[in-house]
Amino acid sequence: MKRRSAIATLGAISLGLTTPRLLKGEVLQGPRIIKKEKLTTDILVIGGGTAGVVAAVQAGRAGKKTILVENGSMLGGTTTTGGVAFPGIFFAWGKQVIGGIGWEMVQEAVGFNDDKLPDFSVPHGRQHWHHQVRLNGPLYAMMIEDKCVEAGVNLRFYETPVEVVQHKEGWKVTTIGKGTKTEIVCNQLIDCTGNAFAVSLAGFNLLREKETQPGTLMFRIGGYSMDQLDMNRIKDEFNAAVNRGDLIKGEFLHVESLLRNAGDNVQHIAGADATTSVSHTIANINGRASLFRTLKFLRTLPGLTGLKVLDMQNETAVRETYRIDSIYQVTHEDYVMGRIFEDAVCYSYYPIDLHDEQGVIPKHLEEGRVASVPLRALIPKGSRNLIVAGRCLGSDRLANSALRVQASCMGMGQAAAAAAVLAHTQGKTPAEVAISDLKKLLTEHGAIVPEG
Amino acid sequence: MLLVFYGVTSTFSQQRQEDTIRYFTIPTLPQNVADVNSMLIDTGGVSAPKDTLFQLLTARGDPISYYRKISTEVCFDGSCRLLRVDLYWNVTGRYLGFELPPKGFLSKAEHEPFNEQEYQQLHAILADSLSPIGNFNYQNLIPQSSAAEGVDAVTRPTSKDVLPYVVKGAVFTTHKMWNLVYGQVQRDVEHATEAALNPGFLVDMLNSDDIWDRYWALDRMHILSDHPLQVKDKVVGFLCDSSYNLVLHALTVLPKDWGEDSSFQQKLWLAFDCVPPALRPKLMEKLGTYEKLDRSIMLDITDRLPTMYGPVLTAALQCLRNYLPKEPEILRRVTALLDHNNPYIAKQIKKFLQEVPTID
Q1: Which domain holds residue B277?
Q2: Which chain A residue shows the shortest CA-CA distance from B305?
Q3: Residue A258 CB coordination number (10 Å)
Q4: Which domains does chain A have, with CATH numbers?
Q5: Is residue B228 assigned to a domain?
Q6: Does tRNA-binding show up as a keyword for this record (chain A) (predicted)?
Q7: Residue B76 and residue B177 in one domain
Q8: Which ipTM score applies to this complex?
Q9: What is residue A380's DSSP assignment?
């Protein structure tokens, strides 16, 4: 101890000896200590993506003290950071099926940008994307953040949970962030990570396919003119490059589609997983490397020597990772038959949309059919005071391929939060909340609730 | 001959009449033709820069449909074929139908005539104003051969991108006819109808079963300086329609001067609960634009504030804002909400009251 004390003293002396002379206006900042904090809240939302933002706003507007933890730099998830800024589908067979806070944000973003909504009374036929709403991503990010602040939500960026344990109040979630370590005690926990990350940390099992849908890095290219290209030659050269191994098969299924769409939603990155830093880093590097490799190759071809990257998102957007082992799993049959559950909390409308190595061939719903999401599909089996919203809901793979889309996630986000709000008010767990109460609260907040 | 023809066949259908091939959709207005007006239009063509657009009229002189006798060429593979067809439009410019000359027929590659199914398919494509065929220009319709291949075929394969949107073997005919339907003539039809617009005619179009016609009529209400009660009631009725876009359209085009009438304001407010929830803020905003808002409506809005959330609450407060300085009772009721047990609502009310201008 004496030796240690002597060394510490020497250190202090040396520090004194090396204390910088401060210039005018400078302040000495000592070595940083991780800021530890303990917070309590009524509702904690983990994940500020498509579903999480809506959940947080719903909870705030219902008068609950709400914290929203997001590991990135801004809200919106796939819609903003991922660059997939065309949410859908809010309307089915000419009628609105998903409304509420998500729709409020979307239509305000459209109006503010002087854009136009699609005409939902015109059937989309096989082109379901006609009913998706194109947004200005950066504008949307600002707008949803503003809504969160207005609703009184405590936003915490650059934080991720590292521990989730049961607590007498509900849950204690430990998060780390840049220079922070925080213990958040909440009564109700909503996992909107999309990867069921918080649910897994809380000790619950998850489900996953052996092979998941690919991710996509969104980007835009230009610097060429389609009618100047010898497309047959380009296709031949592209395929030869894939066969040689210079390009990776399946990353860009059709070079003509890549060029015609100028990069919009055309890439497939196999195994893309946003769950952890490690897996998401791999997905991002693979996405960017794929693009870079392909650009370098294409620029060697006539007509494409001036090819340029005009824009590129920060992350590879992900379609599928983990799903919860929920009280009820929505099946493919439930979805395509348009089953309306007694505890249905929102609708979902989109073709079965499974991306694989062959591409994607959407399977449209039969006329008049609209699927619904039961509350039980959002609740991990055996859990209390815990609910999810977004693509990690309980569902089989085919149903999930349609349920995971952004409008449905918004509907789920609002429903999950409404359930959490009522559970908090009534001292219950979300599964115990009366469906009639839940539907009433949702309707008061503009959501469209299926009639069972 | 044309009038006799319409007199005999006053209902339209997708039927093949003896010796005459004709396909029609349901028209906007009953086709009780009493007169025909010939209008000279520009075709944009070089060889025939002018042509006639025929405007079919009722006895009252209102237009009910239009047609043009097309005589043009469809060229491909270095050869051209004559296309003769009468194309018809509804008064709002929507495609109505087509009719071939007596004993005439359309043919595909190698002069093979269309069959019934192909005529029906063509009719459906022409009726689809959003058909992707409109995105293709003439050169994209067939794949371009590379220099290494010989060009030695009477018929070349159609580009597979365009196949789902054309009659197989008649890609150029389909493309040509679709572009004729949705080209400049459509706009000429719309302008001609606009020139003939009157209140009774407007009501007819607002009553159309086709939603496009209703949009068309809503977008042109401003052409008339005076709107009878029937028009106003019809437009307010749209606010409770199940079509989101129609409700949005109606709310957007509601003329401001309609709100000068207190009874109209009451009708609008009565529609609040049946308007789609997502559009209630818009209705509230509309009420807030009126210089004088009926007091009973203001009191009703105030009483309902505690049940409102999000954009509806914001819009309701903004609506009241314009009138508050002169309405102490309403101000008192709003102020009472500062004690609301929902901190979000209390915060919205507080923020709102801070912004309300005070009376000198």
Answers
A1: 198-355
A2: A444
A3: 20
A4: 37-208+321-444 (3.50.50.60), 216-317 (no CATH)
A5: yes
A6: no
A7: yes
A8: 0.80
A9: B
